[in-house]
Amino acid sequence: GENVEQHPSTLSVQEGDSAVIKCTYSDSASNYFPWYKQELGKRPQLIIDIRSNVGEKKDQRIAVTLNKTAKHFSLHITETQPEDSAVYFCAASPSGNTPLVFGKGTRLSVIA
Amino acid sequence: KAGVTQTPRYLIKTRGQQVTLSCSPISGHRSVSWYQQTPGQGLQFLFEYFSETQRNKGNFPGRFSGRQFSNSRSEMNVSTLELGDSALYLCASSESSSLEQYFGPGTRLTVT
Q1: What is the pLDDT of residues A6-30, one digit of tens each?
Q2: Does B99 touch chain A (CB under 8 A)?
Q3: Which of A64, A112, B46, B72 could cross-link with B34 by S-S, CB 3.0 to 4.6 Å?
Q4: Closest by Cβ to B103, choosing from A43, A95, A104
Q5: Could you report the per-residue pLDDT of A59-103, keeping only the tens digit for each?
Q6: Cβ atoms of residues A50 and A64 within 8 Å
Q7: What confidence tens digit (pLDDT) does each residue in A26-38 have?
Q8: Cβ of A43 and B104 within 8 Å?
Q9: Minimal Cα distance from B108: which residue of A?
């Protein structure tokens, strides 16, 4: 089955700097890769996702890149702000009828 | 549209008891997935229901069970509670596939 590894487990950046979180997956059939943000005490929220037919997707300050050959995808946050502080989870799914497999999360701290 | 709701939000039970948690998906969503979230383990998939049928099942013991009603609301049951079952239980709904899942606020279960 699918296995997703996420790095780093913790990340501290200065406000205004960029943050990058990387995930690798094992199942070459995986074709859907979402990212979730979970603030302390709150529910995970879908912030961006990418499908295997594109290599990059952007939404304002966040972007996700996908390298299908190397089986890894990354979340990029530019111009970080204190409100970006949260735990970020990546996930992968081989198809629409198979469960999402989540990475173990990255705790991002943005220092003002 | 109203978001995913879960009841109760907090629950304290004694070892050996059983518990039932409820999840109401976003209107029109027919798929409901359940996850267990514990520190260090991330989000672990329990099961997914679609149109009142269990479509996928994770690697949890048979003490964990669920069901889905005709209105897509879902319940999960844990029997013979163990201390290790203490966790945040999250449900997530999606329109039809297992993709683009939207999470509820979770039920915090504490087993003493």
Answers
A1: 999 999 999 999 999 999 999 999 9
A2: yes
A3: B46
A4: A43
A5: 999 999 999 999 999 999 999 999 999 999 999 998 777 899 999
A6: yes
A7: 999 999 999 999 9
A8: yes
A9: A41
Write the single-letter amino acid at B97: S
| Chain A interface includes B41 (CB < 8 A) | yes
Quote the pLDDT of residue A1. Answer: 83
Q: Is B10 exposed, middle or buried (0-12, 13-18, 19+ CB in 10 A)?
A: exposed
Q: Is the dihedral of CA A22, A112, A79, A33 positive or negative?
A: positive
Return the structure tokens found at A21.
């979180």
Which residue in B84, B80, B75 sits closest to B109, CA to CA? B84
| CB contact A44 to B (< 8 Å) | yes
Going from the C-alpha of A61 to that of each of A56, A81, A112, B44, the distances in angstroms are 13, 10, 17, 29
Q: What are phi and psi of A27, to 5 degrees?
A: -90, 110
Place of tokens 């990058």: A20
